Amino acid sequence: MIFMKSKRIIACSLIAAGLLGAGMAQAQEGISALKGHDSKAPVDVTADRMEVQDRVDRAIFAGNVLARQGELSLRTARLTVAYASQDGIDINRIDASGGVTVTSPSETARGDFAVYDLNEGMITMVGNVRLERGGSYLSGGRLTIDLDTGRAVMDGGLRGVNQGGGRVSGRFTVPKGNSKQ
């Protein structure tokens, strides 16, 4: 049983890597646009409302939140920024809730919640996750993206918790090349 589960996880990882990597409709790019994203670049945030909780080094943005870092953008209803304030403000982590959309020039990921660990360069999305590139997509319960390597792993999540019932599903486009006559 463990062997079968690990084979399933490896297969899902390979499919997700293919979706973000060279195996999709935009294969000429060779790698994901997320690979090598600079998680140390400045983050610009706009929202309808902001509250600073300086004693706990936290800022909360609410209402039509848009956060941008380089070519990466994140839209959500609520965003909590954890920061260190020794020599200015250094963002460590961003938590997003209320429906989250993360967009790069070639991919879009949607989910119920997201955590962006800027120190590790990792984005984790959970709850009804859908990753799209071109006409292809993957759906599951949890998506983890390593911005340094471009590696993405999609998990199905717990059975009964999301609509996928603990499974990953997807649809992949096929090149329209020469057809047989």
From TrEMBL:
Gene3D superfamilies: Lipopolysaccharide (LPS) transport protein A like domain
InterPro entries: LPS_export_LptA, OstA-like_N
Single GO biological process annotation from the record: lipopolysaccharide transport
One of the record's GO cellular component terms: outer membrane-bounded periplasmic space
Residue ranges occupied by any Organic solvent tolerance-like N-terminal domain in the UniProt entry: 45-150
Signal peptide, first to last residue: 1-27
UniProt KW keywords: Signal
Gene Ontology terms for molecular function: glycolipid transfer activity
PANTHER family recorded: LIPOPOLYSACCHARIDE EXPORT SYSTEM PROTEIN LPTA (PTHR36504)
Official protein name in the record: OstA family protein
